């Protein structure tokens, strides 16, 4: 087998947009280069699913959109309309959330060693700040004494990653509790947070139970400790199970241009994913035998979470105009307008594996396998090292659609290399209902 097909799962709105005989062509002519298509209603559906999982489990809580997953401005109003929050890590992101209608009290500020300006702004707007270190806590307390009380969570070092550079060790947690108790009205210590790598249910449930125990301990210090944030890392599933299984079992370097090899791939099929993964965490048993959900309800503790990719699942795709095609050693090489920096997985020593879709699908020529390169002078500027099967050779004037790229793919590493413009952002509320170009840098 010289190649393998990995057709992406796609939502109905995305298929309708791609099946429209003129829509993508009109947008391409208007923007004159690569572009991202964003669909806020799908984001809203994902948000409803997460909040529904909390309600179904009988748990009080709050969903915060992990803003770093996509910088577009169109998501914050969806959060505001749903009463959800936004997780930010810079003053610019905080201002953007406020401009999108999200109330300051619904903003969580995360990240390591936050600037004084960011903490001051957060205090002014009653945001909750996740404190990562003891020296940061001291700076937060100083700001709280002058600018008013700062709402905080104490971030815990993950129990499965004790070497992490983030979070407080058990001894540091004890010291932090003493400092918060002594700080009086300068701070409102509202609980604990953590962030885990990977996409498994069990480690999150275990850490949630541990953080809940820390809340009960903090209350003995006279601190409110009313909430636990279990962070993000909720899975998204891009491929059907059988396609992903076939790829992982039969994988070979010959499927890739120049025999390119990789040390890892994102798990492109996962189950449970999204809100179902949250439901799995809530249904997991604690050491005492009760479920996570039951323990949160029993202790009157709120469960907070910060999904990014999972809220953006099926909420956007990326389109690259084809600039050229050549034959090379039994397969084709497509060159597109744009750079691999706009498909972030390629810049993490890996590959974005779902098949790009050729638009329009019809045209002359026989089926062909082809890799896809960017328009820079860099040999390694490849959007798809894999030899993707196409129904015909892509040619100048065609478009390649990379599906489901809104979550972390479409803007994490983008750059103006060669002075090329960044891809335009096109907000499509409904196929057939018109579209608009979002302002650059938003």
TrEMBL record:
Molecular functions per Gene Ontology: diaminopimelate decarboxylase activity
Lineage of origin: Bacteria, Bacillati, Actinomycetota, Actinomycetes, Pseudonocardiales
Keywords: Pyridoxal phosphate
Cross-referenced InterPro entries: Ala_racemase/Decarboxylase_C (IPR009006), De-COase2_N (IPR022644), Orn/DAP/Arg_de-COase (IPR000183), PLP-binding_barrel (IPR029066)
Domain Orn/DAP/Arg decarboxylase 2 N-terminal: 61-249
A Pfam family the protein falls into: Orn_Arg_deC_N
Required co-factors: pyridoxal 5'-phosphate
SUPFAM superfamilies: Alanine racemase C-terminal domain-like, PLP-binding barrel
Keyword Zinc annotated: no
Protein name: Diaminopimelate decarboxylase
GO terms, biological process: lysine biosynthetic process via diaminopimelate
